[in-house]
Specification:
alpha/beta, five-stranded mixed beta sheet, elongated, 10 strands, D-Maltodextrin-Binding Protein, domain 2, 22% strand
Length: 251
Amino acid sequence: MSSRRSTALASLAGMALVLPLAACGGDDGEQRTITVLAAASLTETFTTLASDFEAAHEGVRVRLAFDSSATLAEQAVGGAPADVLATADTTTMDSATDALAADPQVFATNTMVLVVPADNPAGIRSFDDLGPGVDYVVCVDTAPCGKVAAALLSSADPGAEPASLEVDVKAVLAKVTSGEADAGLVYASDAVAAGDAVTTVEVPGADAQVTTYPIAPLDQSQDAELARQFVDLVLDEEGQQVLQDAGFGAP
């Protein structure tokens, strides 16, 4: 086994979120498993879709691995044992072209919002309040959420640098909901997922920085049929409804 593939295998094994085995009719010998690599902002929706997929496919397990899109694309190209890749921008998906078994298809869009803790201790009412003395956080600029945040901050020029750069959008959200940050730039769908734990503040120019989500099966898939069927679920009416209910925009 090559060192690059060994690194990819080790990295994938260390990912934070792996769905537990769902109740299935078959035993271990009959079970089929697919692994889906998905951007962190898809955590809630893909967890729901994976459960729906398992319910509709007896004896099938869907393992989910969530991380920054850039990290996942790198792992896919490195040969990580996975079947489907879903990223939070087309540029990152393009970087994984060598690992794709089919052309990527766009399945959702998103825009960025500012969230503050429900009690809003810093008294932030508008994007203009991100000035000196306010601890706000954004994604690292290698992540799609970080690229969008950088573009929005460049236009607005709040006069203060972010207090920290987080690995992905869920890490940004966690800083806000835990009270470690006064505010954070996240996707609209993340604000929906956080519910009453945050208050949403509109970001000027966000509509001009739309994030586009593509999905594709991977060359290294050991079950191309199941991989294609999972992609189909995300793209069909059922999958689209789950995404839109979670705050994502249509493709």
